[in-house]
Amino acid sequence: MLGKLKRLARSITPHQANPEDNWASTLLTREEFSVYIQMDPRDREHGTRVARTLQADHPAADPELLAAAVLHDCGKSVRPYSVLERVLVGLVPYRFSEHIPAEGVKVRFAHPELGAEMLLQAGARTAVIELVRLHHHPESNPRAALLYQYDHLE
């Protein structure tokens, strides 16, 4: 929970974000980067932080997993959030978000599928698409489970 509060404090305005866009571009294909660069800077920063931490702990992590870590929240970019809405949506636990009718919360709940569809349309790698799709429901996919774990550390 402390990690979520720290992330929330860092994400009040996009001007506070410091995404590692140059580093991200080394992990992503041109098609994937076209999706990444459309993301809110705060979500880009979160994605690069998740990927950096995952890579530090697992130096042999495969390139598709690191790319998916960078892109895992790209589905949130289908709808911009106001500052207040970003804070309120961020306080709703993901597991409850499917039951709340607010539009921002609906996007948050659907963002794995929305992101996977964006990546599919852009021509991203199949493994990256699948990892983004599964990052909140990893089931028996060990790479998606690792992404889920590192997303929740952040």
Major β-sheet annotation: none
According to DSSP, the number of beta strands is 0
Span between termini: 9 Å
Share in helix: 55-70%
Derived from helix and strand composition plus strand pairing, the structural class reads mainly alpha
Low-confidence stretches: none
CATH level-3 fold name: Hypothetical protein af1432
What would you report as the Rg, rounded to the nearest angstrom?
A: 14 Å
CATH class reads Mainly Alpha
Question: Can you give the mean pLDDT?
Answer: 86
At CATH's second level, what is the architecture? Orthogonal Bundle
Tally of individual helices: 9
Shape call: globular
Order of helices and strands: HHHHHHHHH
Kindly estimate the percentage of residues that lie in beta strands according to DSSP.
under 5%
Summed up, the domain count is 1
Organism: Deinococcus roseus
InterPro entries: HD_domain
Domain HD: 50-152
Protein name: Phosphohydrolase
